[in-house]
Design brief:
By secondary structure, the chain is α/β, with parallel strands linked by helices.
Length: 675
Amino acid sequence: MPPEDQDLDTSSLVVILGQPIEDDELPFAKDRKIHDMGPHLAPMLFQRAEDHLDYCIPLGRFLEPGEVVAGVKLSYGPVTDPPLTITKVGYAPTGVAIWITDGGEDERYDLQALVTTSQGRLKLFRFIMRTRGIADYIAPIYVTVEPIEVGVGINPNALPGASVSDGVLSAGAVPGASVSDGELSAAEDVGVARLAPAALSLTATVGESTAKVATLVNTGTAALAIDAIAVSAGFTQTNTCGASLEPGASCSITVTHAPKAEGSTAGTLTVETDVGDVTSTLAGTGTAAPVLPALGALSTSGNQFVKANGDVVRLRSINWFGAESTNNFPHGIWANGYKILIDKIAAWGFNCIRVPFSGDTFKSSSKINGVSDEFAENLAFIVSGTAATGYTYVTPFEAMDLIVAYAETKGLYIVFDHHRRAAGDGADGAPTDGSYSQANWLATWALVANRYKSAPNVIGADVHNEPHDLDWATWAGLAETCGNHIHTIAPHWIIFVEGVGSVADDFYWWGGQLAGVATRPVVLTVPNKLAYSPHEYGQSVGTQTWLRYDSNPSLPANYPANLYQVWHDHWGFIFEQNIAPIWIGEFGGHYGVDGTGAATKPHGTYEKQWTTELGKYLAGDFTGSGVNALPAGKMGASFAYWSFNPNSGDTGGLLQDDWNTPQAVKLATIAPFLA
């Protein structure tokens, strides 16, 4: 599943940092043409070089209550002669404005604006500028007229401290101004403090902590002296503000709430400045620690996963990819805190994470990257350095240790997946090749098994992803060799074996074809530690004869009732006949929505039908008749949704592109799986 870049494209030739402005400085938003850029749509703007075009990005619908825009970084290119000129980039509490002029003859410029909010959230906007060159010279016409005095109307109610008496505006309306003989003097340069958001709400489990960020901005014309920053009622704060703040500059104040008991706490964040105090209200809530299921090794009993005490477990899993890429670490840590992301997984009802990795991930020479230091919890990945000079990070193993350990506190199992031989995107088709031998493959698994054999929540190994280049007999033998090797180190782990691409010219999804198990099952030295893991996809991933599409709704005519036999023949018989557990290692789709949650993707209706029927089948309705065939005390087949990440090109994820907002349509579609 190839990831897509979710960050600002800093390879552009010009990068501009925005300056704060007021909401009343935002220009009116104008209608623009929409241009198809392939993976996404973007507004396209047209202008002549002599025009001064203002472009407004209103952000009100993206902001939470009390949240404001805290910064923007603009990137654009290419540079031509004459060049496009960005005369100003400004951010107001509710939007971003860009003032544009110049540009070459019929040139295209790709612009990106990466917006940061006061809650530390990110949003990336893309648009296109098409210029029309320099206008022909026209001789100017000069007209001499008598000077005309132009008055400016002011509504005193809009200005703090303003009043009007006998038509005269009071001095309180303008900071630093004074009135003498009814005339308003010029205002002196003064600092003006603005603190946002006006209220911070922090909820944490007793014994843990949570943090949120407030932004102090000087919107005045002189330096702002900061005398003190304080919080009350047991809250704590750290800040980047220093003793003064220059005009247009901002600084961050991180407020932390660490409840010692359940209940609510009210407090105040106060910033004392030379022009007065500014405040934000603080509301803290302490919640009871959840009662988590005891984690530990699992075994198999027929088609069920069971604990040591005999309790049956259904693995309701999700894929969090990225460690198999050149990041050598799960994606999204560039846009959110790692604990925040894991909290979302647990809160949605999942109890397991499938973690892809590559043969390069845990090499001694490998390094992690893509970590944001804007979230306090991510500082655990930094050994030394600064944002300006660059950071030195912990090793990939040390970083993964933090993921595994925190997942355990949330009651989440971990299954590691050997996704690729070398760091990158996509599926290799076989676990070995000329540069990555069987010995390399086994040695990689030995590293992982030795590292996590004692972690109570690491329960198994998906020995290789989508081995579609191999025939079933060859792959079954390799899976046995690898599984037995892992069991010499971690004999309590479940060995997950995926399918191939075809059996007897019956082609299926990569990793999904397990028909060969009927005549050639995988047999391990350690008993009751084997599960099969097909991959199963719908319309978002490819065209198949058993699926129905918007472009051909008549194929097949009996959709979706036909799906039950398709699943039975390729992998479902293993579960139905009580041969071994089934864990769908990947399934998912766009379900009609894009990375912003908008309904722009095709096949949404049919893909939701496919998913609904798959949920019934996994739960024990093997014919679609509405009758559950599972004996009492047994649970349905297990699964791993693809994916948590929004940057999966084939399917998107359960998070929107901002790595924070849930995809409501998708979560509603898979809700029966998590019930």
